[in-house]
Structures are given as structure tokens and as C-alpha cells.
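OP here, attaching both records as promised.
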Amino acid sequence: MKNLLNIMLAATALTGVSTAVATSPAMAAPAAGRPNIIVVIVDDMGFSDIGAFGSEIRTPNLDALATGGVRFNNFHTTPVCSPTRAELLTGVDHHQTGIGTFPELLQDNQAGKPGYEGYLNNRVVTIAERLRDAGYKTIQSGKWHLGYDPAANPAARGFERSFAMLGGGHNHFGRDAERSRPDMPNVGIVYTLDGKQVGIPDNFYSSDYFSDRLMEFLPAKGDRRPFFGYLALTAPHYPLHAPPEDIKRYAGKYDAGYDVLRTQRLAKLKALNLIPADVEPHSQTSTVRWYSLSDDEKRIEARKMEVYAAMVDRVDQNIGRLIAELKKRGVYDNTVIMFLSDNGPEGHELDKSFIIPEAGKAMLANADNRLESIGTEQSYIWYGPNWAEAASAPFRKSKSFPTEGGTRVTAFMSYPRQLKGRIDTAYTSVRDVVPTLLQYAAIDTDLTHFNGRDVLAPQGASFAARIAPGARTEVLPPLFAAGEMFGRRYVRKGNWKAVHIPPPTGSGRWELFDMDKDPGEVHDLGRDHRDVLADLVRSWNIYAAEKGVVPPIIPGN
């Protein structure tokens, strides 16, 4: 049996599979008609940043959706945003979609390689393209980050109506909208409406405006088609900006500091049964503890978190507006809502990081980051590793790393007509979302061909049956999962996970963890289980060859 399993793993080399064996019948489209579907993705939100996942931040609308539906406490994305978005929309490993790495950080040894085109290529099909052809109205609003090429614009990839911010980040009040340079993707902002470049209004605020546009695109009266909506909010991605009335709500809330917040979040996660009661949290990356800060430093740090909380609060307010609109139209009960973050929280000291380009550092130098300005349109701030790791605890590290803190994210699904409140503990991949939604939409056509061309079929597996009411499941770890970003690598088989992080942010060697006993990735067991580690490394090499992974050349490694 062991040999047979190894043969199966080597033959399939799956890159993120669902992990629970459901004993209930497969889901079918409801008798009243195919459901509407809305996917909401937020940017850099921490695992415990909404109330239903242990937060103190005011998120009643998200909490109601999450607790009334299915919360996933073992849901995994890629370590960063654009690759996750590629996988979310196609169900295919990002190295094969054209987003093998950040388009703005493409290295010389990756340029020209298949899968590293820098935009969503034609080897893959988006869920919008599939649902549009199946009779859905398809709409999009928010961050795209899948390339500036017109052939990769939402309007060309299946969305009937779209309002897109093509780059990776922006001033949330729109004060950098004049920087329309595609060679500056994180600060050079391009907005398009149905594929044509447009401006934005003076009263722009990202979460409000993106939500407004999506609701405007909903089917008009008399249009009986089901709809697919993709709302990609840029909050709470840096720079941290929020309306002053929302910031005011959190004044003084974080004066006790990030160390206390981390302890409080861990306790709440345990009380909610979202993490094991005996979990050993990974230690914090930064050695700077709250008590060591001066009073002025504490005030600045607390204000950063106040603004961050206000951004999450504003996200929730807009989700509340969207829910109210669905209820007004009488379609709420028959609408599937999938909510997730694109990766873990942003924990870099960005002025010292390769993640932010030189143009971004120039914006930082010209910003007004005085205490009284933090959170306004003139500021350019982030909240750093200590606040981030309060939100990713008990897991290790944060965004951009293949550790649990970088890839295990807050996620839930709401479907009032079918799903009831529960927690799903099975390993779930972002690549499983497309197969799940296609199953809800009763689409079972050939997924290897599209418009006369061969394409890559989704590589995940539907979890619809697993989370259905009354389904009895045997929870299993993944048969196989693997990935790479910025040369940082991971591979999983069953309960074993191997991670390789090059210097200066890692050891430069493969580390081994037993995820059943050590989800915090605290104890490296590589020396005790050399055969297990060697097998995992071989499996990663097979995966990399099959998916066309081209790690960047890192000096000194």
C-alpha cells in the first residue's frame, strides 16, 4: 500500500488538493436554479483579523457570513498576491499561468520562460470565461494585478463588466492616480473600465468605490441570468489609509501594544476552536518588544494599528452594503459568497525590503508620516512584523514566506440556502475554489479545451460535498502540495512539510516539520528524519520540473 501511494503521488504531482473524503452524495445545483456566486478577496489580511476568527476589530457583517456558513481554519494560498489571484481565478498552479513571479520583479533568468510572461496567459481559462459561456453575467471590480497587457485585462478574460486597478497597490484615496506608468506597477496606477483606461473621482476611497462599482454592475431589472461577481479589495494593503471617522473609533484601542494583542488573539482563537488548545506558537521574528519602545514610538505604533483596524472595519461596512443589496433584490439566500485573503499579513519593514521597488521608496521619502498625519492621504506607512505576527499567530512569519503565517489565511464560504455554521479543518488550497464553484454552477463540460484550444484544467478538487450539511468527513492532510515564490520553497506529503528559505531571511537549508503536532513550525525535525526529508525534496524537484518552476538566482546562494 505504501508503494502504491508513492506511485500515485509521483504520477499526479498535484499542487494543492482537497483532503477530506466525503461520504455524502455530490452536490448538485439547487432546484430553484443555479446560484449566484460572489468571490471577495482582500489584500494582506491576517488570519485573526475579523471577529469570527478571533479579532477585536468590529466586523459584524463578515462575522455573520462566516459563522452562518463554513469557516476554513486550514485554507492555504500562495505567499503573495498576484500568484494567488492567478490560482484563484484559474485553479492552476501560478507557475503555469503567466504569473510565475511578481511581474514587477521578473529576473533575467526567468524572462521569456513559459509561465513567466508577466500576464495571465492563454494556457489557462478563468472561471469568469467558463461561467460567462454557461450563461452567467460576469462582473469584476477592484485589484487585478494579472498584467497590463490588453489581452489579459478582465474585459478580455471573461468579465462582461469590469472596473480594474491593474497594478499591485495604490494610495487608497487615489492621490497617485496620475502615475499611470506600467513600468511602476506598485505605484504607477492604471484604472480601466471595461478594458478602457479611465480616471477616478476626487472623493475616491478604494473599498467604497470598488464596492459601488460592483453593485452597479449587478444584473438590471429583467435580466434573469445568475451572476458571478469578483470583488477584489485592496484593503488592508499598505499604505495604510482610512477615513478619519473610522480611525477615531479605534483611538486608544492598541495602547497596550502588539505583544498583548498577540496573546489576546491566541486566546480567542483557542476559545473559538480554530486552533488547538495546546498549540505551540512560533516565536516572533522581531526582537523589539513593546516595553522597550519610547512613549513616542508607542504612540506611532499604536496609531498604525488603529488605521489598520479602521481599514478592516471599512471593508466590513462595504460587505454589509453588498449583503443589503442582495437581500433587497431577493437573491441573498441563493448566493454563494467565498471570502478570503490573498496571503498572510504584510510583515516586512518595507523601506528595507526588495518587495517594494525604488519608486515606492521615493514615495515613502516624500510622505508626511508624522503622528497626526498617519492614515491620511499624505502618509505612506505599513505596520511591520510585530503587528503582522500578532495577526498570523500561532503560525510562523507572514506574507511572502511559504510558512503557515504567509499562506494559511482567513477564509470562509456563505451559502444561506445550503450551508450551516461549522468549521472545516481539512487542508484546502486556493486552487480548490474553481472546481467547487463550477460544481455549484453545475458545469461539468470538458475543462481541457476552450474555444478550440488545449488548456490546462483546474488542478484542485471541489470541496462542495465535504462541507454540505450532514456530510460525514474523514479529515486528512494533503496527499501532496508544493510551491515556490522568490526562491522560497515548500512541499507537503501527509503530515510532513519541508520548507526552504534562502538567506538572509532563512537558514538556506531544507527544514522539516510535523504539521499534525507542530502547526507553528517550531521544531525542525530534519536531522531526525533524514529519509522523510530527502523524499520530500525529491518530490519538490519533480513538481518544479512538471510546473516549469524557475527560481530566481539569489547572490550568495
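Record two, same layout:
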Amino acid sequence: MSRYEDFYRRSIYSPEAFWSEQAELIDWQTPPKQILDASNAPFANWFVGGTTNLCHNAVDRHLATRGDQPALIFVSTETGVEKTFSFKELHTQVQRTAASLIELGVGKGDRVLLYMPMIPEAAFAMLACARIGAIHCVVFGGFASGSLASRIEDAEPKVVVSADAGSRGGKIVPYKPLLDEAIRLSAYKPAAVLLTDRGLASMNLVAGRDHLATELAPKLTSHDVPCTWLESTEISYTIYTSGTTGKPKGVQRDTGGYAVALAASMKHIFDGRAGETYFSTSDIGWVVGHSYIVYGPLIAGMATILYEGLPTQGIDQRPDGGIWWQLVEKYKVTVMFSAPTAVRVLKKQDPALLKKYDLSSLRALFLAGEPLDEPTARWISEGLGVPIIDNYWQTESGWPIITIANGVEAKASKFGSPGVPMYGFRVKILHESTGEELTAPNEKGVIVIEGPTPPGFMQTIWKDDARFVDAYWKTVPGKTVYSTFDWGIRDEDGYFYILGRTDDVINVAGHRLGTREIEESISGHDNVAEVAVVGVADLLKGQVAMAFVVPRSGSAATDPEAALKLEGEIMKRVADQLGALARPARVRFVTALPKTRSGKLLRRAIQAVCEQRDPGDLTTIDDPTSLQQIQRLVGA
């Protein structure tokens, strides 16, 4: 048995002993009394009775040994700013932000919603919440007012932390008007808004509610804010993920289990070492940004790069497809984490840029967010000459479910496969309608995880235990297993291959979007009778949304000019309500949508036709001409 197989088996068959050892990777104020309480399945409570603090483990515990070493390296190619904060300086900034939140009435258990660009103040606010035991809820800075409002209503934050604006590709995106509109739309109103003014866009301040961070800080009586020790099972944060219904799902994370899971993953998966530099190109609005921009690298004592900008723009705002490699050289990055979409963008740049910089510090490039296609993997692998390690996980899991644990044992990656199940994850492939386990190589089924789920995995859906159980644990007949809602196969060597979603969530450039949310937005247009949105494979973005609409009246289905006008209106509506990311690549008009005789939309058949694949068994279709119409439109 290989070293990793032995390591994995211990995690599955002796989980208490295994995770008790991993728990030694972090500081505890009070050691855990019980490693695992799985008495109320499918809920799993880890390190029960132990008290700890995420901010202490990410910042304070490093002050004595590496206080002057870099902790947070901020690089914005949007504003031309580059600034490094040592662990001591980070500690000071986090305490100042924590004091400001306390001044605004935030205490343990209160929610704080962050609607922030990729700036240091966003990381300060996350760590400040963790420091005082407040629950942070980060919403991606590009989200439209409608989406933001629904998250404000669900989280009920005491304070919203935001900024005047973000910037993307040199285009200023004012956040304050979007936030003001979201608060107006929300039935719940936060007591205060704490704002960073970057000087990018003017802001209208609401008297009594809005506070500029620079003006509030001098009024504080003390900047010395000690860590609040939390029970391991107390909530650290919530983060929203797309559901198949319009209502967002708040993934709830604990404190101790998450800290241990991240510390273990930094050692066993990413092989990150204290004093080195980690560069994740993600955003703090997504789970990768939580786990591997902010908490994971800092817990490991590494410097972490917080990057604002495109992968193709230099610090001088001029086009530069080598900016990331320049940063790898400058900051001696050892571990890099990005997404296949970003690599596909870089693939269009001059290949000489990969050889222009000294990348000898880099040990591996990790990619996640959507399936990694083989041509992209080969191109970047040959260009960088380091292992390219795909990894498969979800907002719900908090850290990789399937990848290669090179920190335990060096193992070859296979192009097209994220790898093998990680320690703590009991990953199985089941038949979707019988629930039978599929054990033969290359049998396609639903990828599931048997409980108890490992530390760091979601505890539940915020304020909705019943939905957590129903949505995730009751979808496979006769089995109480967590469904990933992904199809997959396992080869003869035990490597997994991900084949796409079983539900109606699509993956656009690493961002998960619910097709139902997009459909709801489109169907709100006065001239839309019916709509179907499917995810269609796209070489650059992985997937794009494609909408098919049956108009209520008019000539959109027959007149190109009318179609163009209505398509523009629908696209604007989706962008305004859900953000530009959710806007379909195309809206096409049809006289009928393909359905079964019982009225169920044949989404898979529509998707297959769009991707020029065989739509498969169509014996249940009510009107075959409806699919033929889509076929003609797509082929035109």
C-alpha cells in the first residue's frame, strides 16, 4: 500500500485519531473534548468543546516568530498600487477594523456583510470579524442590487462593509449606488455602513448610517482588540452559492473544523511552507478566496498575494500577458492557484512570456473552478515545466474533495482528471436512479460523499437545516449521502473524471450560476411567455448561458430586427438584476420549447443540440419540431 493510500485509509477508518493529529497544526485556547460528534447525522460536529480563533491562527500566532515577514501583498494593476503588509502591520490594521466594527455595535454572533473590491481592507474586515466572533458574509463585488438585496435580507447584517468602487479592465464600477439601491430594495435594513473611499467614484453618504473608515478610526478610544475565543462548532462565516431555486443558499461554516482543514490542506495538498509566498488569483467573493487567499496561506505562515486586475494588464495599465509570471518572479511565489478560464485567456498571449521570467521558485500550479480540459492542461504544463494539479471541490466542501496530495506522497497527475479522493472524503459513484454503487472502471454515475463529512465541510444551510438535508442528502433513492450534483467516472487506477452537472447550475468562468435564477429574471419581461436557460460548453469560459424564449406576442420569432431589440432588452434586464456574469451569451426566439408529454422541459436535449451532440432518447418528447427549430437556429 502506498504512503498516501495508508494515510487516506486512516482518515476513513480511524477518523478521530487521524483528525486529532491534524488538530495539532493550529493553536487552541481550550483543547477539544470530543473530536467528532456524528450522533445527529447527516450533521457532523468537529472538535467539540475546543475553543480557538481563526484570526489568532492566521495572524497573532506568527507575531513572535515572523512578525516582520510579509503577510499580505496587495497588487492592483487597475490603480497601479503595490503594497506589502508584514504580519505586525496586518495585526495593527485588523485590530483597527475590529475596533471600528465594535464602535458600530457589532459583537459576537452578529453578521457583517462585505461588498468589497479586491483591496486590503476586504481582508482586514474578514479577519476583524473572525477576531471578534462576528459572522462575515462576503458577497462578490460585481453583484447587481437585486442579488445583493436578497443576500442582505437572508443574512440580516448589523453592518455592511463596502467601498466607493471597484475597477475591472480600467473601467470603474461604482459600488455605492448599487449598495444604496440594494438596501432600498431589502425588507431588512442594516444599522450602519462602513466605507473605504478609494477616490475612484463620488459617494452620497446617508447621515447616521454611513461612516467613512478614515473618519471613524480617529474617534476610537482603543485599537487594542483581543481575540474572542469561539467554540469550535460556532459559525465563522456564511457564503452564498447558486441554488436551483431562486433563493440563495447560505453555506454555513464552523470555526475549529475549518481552521484544522485549511492547516492540513496547506501542508498535505499544497505543500505550502511558512515564509514562502502563495498566489491565488481568485476573488474573496468566492470560496477559493476565503480558503486560499485569506485564511489558508496566513494560517500556514505564508505571504499571500491579493490581486486586483486582469491577467493581461500590467501595473502601468498597459497590456501585459506576462503580469502574473512577473509577480511569481518578483515575490518568489512557490504555490499558485488559478482557474482554467484564466489559463485559456493566457493561452492567447505570446508563448514567449512564459519563458521571459524566472519561475524557478514555483513548485506547482493548482487549477480549480471548472473542469480542466486536456489541451489547456498540456499547454500550461509544457510552458511552465511544473506540475499542473487540477482539483475538484465546491463552495460547500471548503477545500478540495478530489486532487493529488503531493505533500503526503508525490503522485502523477493525469490530464483531464482532478485526481483521487482526499483524506476524510468518502467519495463514491452511485447509479442515479437505483442508488447502487458503481465500482467497475469507467461507469458513469453521480458523485456522492458518504457521511460523516470531514472538518471544514459546510455545517448546514444558514437558518435552514431542513433545506440542507433535503437539497443535499435526499436526492439519491434509498441512500442518505451528500450529492455533489456532478456526473463522474473512475478509471482503473482510481482517478476520477468529472463529466458535468446533474442539476441546473452552470459554471461560467468558475462562477456558479443557477439557470433557474436567470430564467426567473427573463420571465419577468412583459413579452416573455416561456424560457429555458441551459449551460453550453465554451472554449474560453468553460460554459456560457444560452436562453431560448417563447415570446408572448409580436414578431421576435420571425423578424430579425424585432428579435434583436427584444434580445437586447432581455440581456439588459438580466445584467441589471443578477449582474453581467449572468447575462446569457445569446437569447434565441422560438415558437415552442421541447418538453415531455408530462410538461417537463428537456433541458439536456436542448444543451446537447447547442453543443452539436446527439440529444439521445427522445421517445417522451411531445412535439419533435420544437427541438428541430432550436437545431436550425443554432446551426444557422
